[in-house]
Each structure stands twice: as C-alpha cells, then as structure tokens.
Amino acid sequence: xxxxxxxxxxxxxxxxxxxxxxxxxxxxxxxxxxxxxxxxxxxxxxxxxxxxxxxxxxxxxxxxxxxxxxxxxxxxxxxxxxxxxxxxxxxxxxxxxxxxxxxxxxxxxxxxxxxxxxxxxxxxxxxxxxxxxxxxxxxxxxxxxxxxxxxxxxxxxxxxxxxxxxxxxxxxxxxxxxxxxxxxxxxxxxxxxxxxxxx
Length: 199
Known about the structure:
- The protein folds into 2 domains: about 10-55, Arc Repressor Mutant, subunit A (Orthogonal Bundle); about 60-195, Tetracycline Repressor, domain 2.
- It contains 9 helices and no strands.
- It has helices at about 10-30, 40-45, 50-55, 60-85, 90-105, 105-120, 120-145, 155-170, 180-195.
- Helix 1 (about 10-30) packs across helix 2, helix 4 crosses helix 5 (about 90-105) and helix 5 packs parallel to helix 8 (about 155-170).
- The chain is elongated.
- About 20% of the residues are buried.
C-alpha cells in the first residue's frame, strides 16, 4: 500500500500545499521529473524540507497527484463544454476544441503527462485507459441513440484521443502551417471525420 498524501484543511496549509504543486509543475516542465529533486522544489518554494514531507511522502507521490489533477481539470473542462451542445458530432467537436485550448493555456501539462511513460509505464497506461473507458460510455450511448454506426467503441475512443493529442501538438508546437485558428482547424478535422478520406 502506497503512503498517503495529506491534504491540508487550514487556509495556510492549503496555500503551502498549492505552492508546492505550482513550484513542482514549473520545475518538472523546465527540468523534467528526473532532473528535479525535492531540494530543488523546497528551495524554489522557499519552504523547509520538513514542510514538504508534511504533505507528500516522496517525489513520485507528488507527481502522481499532479498527473491526476491534470486529468481531472481536462475532464471537467471538456464535460462543461460538451454538455452545452447537442448531438455526438458536435460534442466531439467541442471536446477536441476544449482539449486543445487547455493545452495552449497549460503547455506544461503535455510534458508532464507524457513523461509518465518514462517515470512509470503503468501510470501512462492507467492515465489513458481511464480516459478511454469514460469516453466509451458516451460513445455507446450515441450508438443506442442512433447517432453513430455500431462500431468498436474502445477503438474509436483511442482514435479520438489520438486526434486530440496530435492535432493539439501540431497547434501547440506550430508544426506545419496555419495553426492560428483552433476553431477552423478542428472544424476541418471533424469534416474529414464525417465525410471520410478514401474514395
């Protein structure tokens, strides 16, 4: 059983906890997980090492917490936007746009999430498997509602996650051309998905 993270209850405790999180996100983004030490985190945050250990038993537990926070934030933002539109097609479009905008506002999230593949492969697997399973629920409902063909929903969930991730990377890293208009890019992506590619 893994040692537990201690979530603070007091205002000062919550502020210190968040300071540790924000400092660590910045360091992980700039230096990577393996090149960042607990000493780096405490020195940059201006806290004692003992204060760190009040909340987190080790660096890995802190990383896992940050990873799950990113997942929660992304899901929450997508859920809000998706709930405001009708129909599976429009929901997918809204979901992809929301994910890409989140990535643009939080470029550090991409680095930290993908680094999990090298920190602990099971973390990476669990992260995307969790997304896929939740994704599938909506896809299965859309099949029941007659909005989609009777397709392999697990596979489709990974297809859409792949589209979101790599179209997001194209825009975030400014790969290729014409990356300024998120709406136009995602609209074109969804038109291609709707009409298909091959004759």
